[in-house]
Amino acid sequence: MTTTTTHHGRSDRTGAAAGGLVTFAAVLLFVAGILDLFRGIMAIADDDVFVATPNYIFKFDLTSWGWIQLVLGVIAMVVSAGLFSRALWARVVGVGIAALLIIASFLSIPYYPVWSLTLIALYGFVIWALCVVRREP
């Protein structure tokens, strides 16, 4: 199998892999953003799916926490749309929003532990996928 080289010295196969990683990050960020949106709605509605933790250092009102999750989830979905269009700003903001969402998920571990750890892993993959791809000329 032969690979062609572009005028910038990168092979077509490398470019396709890079585009695939950005698409992977966009899909993960969109899905995780929707999940955060739903988690925010559940917290705002005072749903009983959240564990009551009386002695946690980082104590938040469940409704306030729900609004934070909801807003971060919406931002993540908007940024994922930018990632689908291969916008450079979206890659930079995507890493930042994924990092913020990792912190938010960490702070909510006592309230919903398995879900929080799952989202931390998803956002970690988003950061990885956005950071390993070189900037396109």
Automatic annotation (TrEMBL):
Membrane-traversing stretches: 21-45, 65-85, 92-109, 115-133
Domain of life of the source: Bacteria
Domain DUF7144 span(s) in chain numbering: 22-135
Keywords: Membrane, Transmembrane, Transmembrane helix
One family name in Pfam for this protein: DUF7144
The name this protein goes by in its record: DUF7144 domain-containing protein
Organism: Streptomyces broussonetiae
